[in-house]
Specification:
- This protein has about 625 residues and is of the alpha/beta class.
- The protein starts with 16 loop residues before the first helix and ends with a helix.
- The strands form 3 sheets. It has a 7-stranded mixed beta sheet with strand order 7-6-8-9-11-10-15, sandwiched between helices. It has a 5-stranded parallel beta sheet with strand order 1-2-3-5-4, sandwiched between helices.
- The chain contains 25 helices and 17 strands.
- The structure holds thiamine diphosphate.
- Thiamine diphosphate binds near residues 347 and 372.
């Protein structure tokens, strides 16, 4: 990889946090430049969460200078900003394997390094985990520090609020660093973000401090002392102006706002916080994408980016229409005709394909920030009063709102359409982001209806069916683009009805969603061996069209199921438990384990879920 050939003046001699402590101020500044260079180089090849990492370079250096890792614990919220942490904790030489199969993960992993104190990937968990560690430390009479680093986006998540509420009265020593860049993936919204912007009055304050620093510190002899006195005074005056200071009122000592790109200022405040007792919140102001122009200009594009050209930030791969975009397009069409359709997102407007909807129908679009639970109960309330809410949400993040689906939507049979995006294997983001459980966990819920389309056309039909069904509906679809298999136009969607997409006599393949075209390719290959497979696009896992499957099995006597869900409670097991007779069966599904990062084709091959492996296994079994 490109960066391996680069010689770095400072970074070459830094491998672990202890090496940072030996650096001079100037060297630390040079280190921050070199780290940016390495991260930009690597992400340009591997893709990754570039902008967020560029925002925490100085913070990570300052933290490692002031604390003793791994004795002291840092919990990175979401963990997408942990690249600097990884490079500086013994993983510099493996950094070019970031997010690649067998390489280092894009998120903190305790299995990867003792410096990673807690696994993250889903938002807003850091304060809870850190408070747990702090309480454990107290009860076990240890003396380490615990620090949670949370972004202003992640702070909008309910869990973060619950944890602040608990930590505030805990009297436990805990440092929460609020990394405020005014951005979630898109611009941060909501009341908390408005409150933070008041604190950022802030900006003027930081500028004043900067001016003061350059001006006063240059006064001979007394300059540095004077600066300290005045800046302390400024800080206390500021807190007089900020009325009803939320963090202080709930029991935190608030320090800030601090320029999050000044290593010196950060070290000063961290060294102060280290000796204060009780819960402390340090508010730092950073710039997402700092130090790389294209990312500074388009921080949302560079939040999570694929391989790109460093010179201008343009993508190396052409962006094709994917399932999220197909859903967004279909929804806009439906919303034009039906004013009752509203869309809700939990901070994933672009990721879930809702940008056009948001632009066209701003009054019917609600970004609730990283609040999946609230988003779904909000949808339930809207549905109760006659609207038709559509909630696109990533499968893995939907896990968090399981009770809301049960308690607020399905118990009352409310017509909410949940578009379960990124269902199945997601590839490089790894185990926290795979959507391998939704078929299982959703199909246990009474009144829930669950379908999955084989291509974009069917997704459009399913969406139309769902919003007009008057029932709780989930439509799950994968990350990426539709398969190239050319199907005949889809038949009308009927509740709980599958369709035969290929007739055959030797075996019955029942597939769902993305795996239907896979089944067709497999059937084509089997045909060349004179084996005729009947392929059923089951469409719904709930209600399940067991009659259609049984009718086909009467003819073929042999069953194969293919799904991109885990085996437990998925399509294969559901069919098996509904069949009135036993048949020789092969189930293709993900095993009962957390599937690590890698590209989707690599992972499918590893688990025998690519077309070739499925074909070979069926042939062998026959
Ligand atoms: C429960 C959950 N919902 C959504 C996401 C997707 N997500 C990843 S990072 C992010 C925004 C985080 O913003 P912030 O905490 O401010 O960090 P920044 O990237 O701005 O530094 C979102 C919405 C997630 N990881 N977890």
């Amino acid at each position: 990889m490109a960066f391996m050939e680069v010689n770095y003046m400072v970074l070459d001699k830094v491998n672990y946090p202890k090496d940072i402590k030996k650096l001079t101020k100037k060297e630390k500044i040079e280190l921050s430049k070199e780290l940016r260079d390495m991260i930009i180089n690597t992400c340009s090849n591997t893709g990754g969460h570039l902008a967020s990492n560029l925002g925490v370079v100085e913070l990570t250096i300052a933290l490692f200078s002031c604390f003793d890792l791994p004795k002291d614990k840092i919990v990175w919220d979401v963990g997408h900003q942990s690249y600097v942490h990884k490079i500086l904790t013994g993983r510099k030489d493996k950094f070019n394997t970031l997010r690649q199969m067998g390489g280092i993960a894009g998120f903190p992993r305790t299995s990867e390094s003792p410096y990673d104190s807690f696994d993250t990937g889903h938002s807003s968990t850091s304060i809870s985990a850190a408070l747990g560690m702090a309480r454990a430390r107290d009860l076990l009479h240890k003396d380490n520090k615990v620090i949670a680093v949370i972004g202003d986006g992640a702070l909008t998540g309910g869990m973060a609020m619950e944890a602040l509420n608990d930590a505030g009265i805990s009297k436990t020593d805990l440092i929460v660093i609020l990394n405020d860049n005014e951005m979630s993936i898109s611009k941060n919204t909501g009341g908390m973000s408005q409150f933070l912007s008041k604190l950022r009055t802030g900006k003027g304050y930081i500028k004043k401090r900067k001016f003061l620093k350059t001006f006063v510190t240059h006064i001979p002899i007394i300059g540095k002392f004077l600066y300290k006195v005045i800046s302390r005074l400024l800080r206390s005056i500021k807190s007089l102006f900020i009325k009803n200071m939320y963090f202080e009122n709930i029991g935190f000592k608030y320090l800030g706002p601090i320029d999050g790109h000044s290593i010196e200022d950060l070290e000063e405040i961290l060294n102060r916080a280290k000796y204060l007792e009780g819960p402390i919140l340090i508010h730092i102001i950073t710039k997402k994408g700092n130090g790389y122009k294209p990312a500074e200009e388009k921080p949302n594009k560079f939040h999570s980016v694929g391989p790109f050209n460093i010179e201008d930030g343009t993508s190396k791969k052409e962006k094709k229409k994917d399932y999220s975009a197909a859903m967004g397009e279909a929804l806009v069409k439906l919303a034009k005709k039906d004013k009752k359709i509203v869309a809700i997102t939990a901070a994933m407007e672009e990721g879930t394909g809702l940008s056009e909807f948001a632009n066209k129908y701003p009054n019917r679009f609600f970004d609730v920030e990283i609040a999946e639970q609230h988003g779904l109960t909000l949808a339930a309330g809207m549905a109760k009063e006659g609207l038709k809410p559509v909630v696109p949400i990533y499968s893995s993040f939907l896990q968090r709102a399981y009770d809301q689906v049960i308690h607020d939507i399905c118990m009352q049979k409310l017509p909410v359409t949940i578009c379960v995006d990124r269902a199945g294997c997601v590839g490089n983001d790894g185990e926290t982001h795979n959507g391998l459980f939704d078929l299982s966990y959703l199909s246990t819920i009474p009144n829930m209806n669950i379908m999955a389309p084989k291509n974009y056309e069917e997704l459009g039909l399913m969406l139309e069916f769902a919003v007009n069904s008057g029932k709780p509906m989930a439509i799950r679809y994968p990350r990426g683009t539709e398969d190239s298999y050319e199907f005949k136009p889809s038949k009308k969607i009927e509740l709980g009805k599958g369709e035969i997409v290929r007739e055959g006599t030797d075996l019955t393949i029942v597939a769902i969603g993305k795996m239907v075209p896979y089944a067709m390719h497999v059937a084509d290959k089997l045909h060349e061996d004179n084996i005729e497979a009947e392929v059923i696009n089951i469409r719904f896992i709930k209600p399940l069209d067991i009659k259609l499957i049984e009718k086909s099995l009467e003819k073929t006597n042999r069953l194969v199921t293919i799904e991109d869900n885990c085996i437990s409670g998925g399509l294969g097991e559901t069919i098996k438990s509904n069949l009135s007779k036993c048949y020789k069966t092969t189930n293709f599904a993900y095993p009962d384990e957390f599937i690590k990062h890698g590209s989707i084709p690599e992972i499918e091959k590893k688990y025998g879920l690519d077309i070739d492996s499925i074909y070979k296994k069926i042939k062998k079994d026959l």
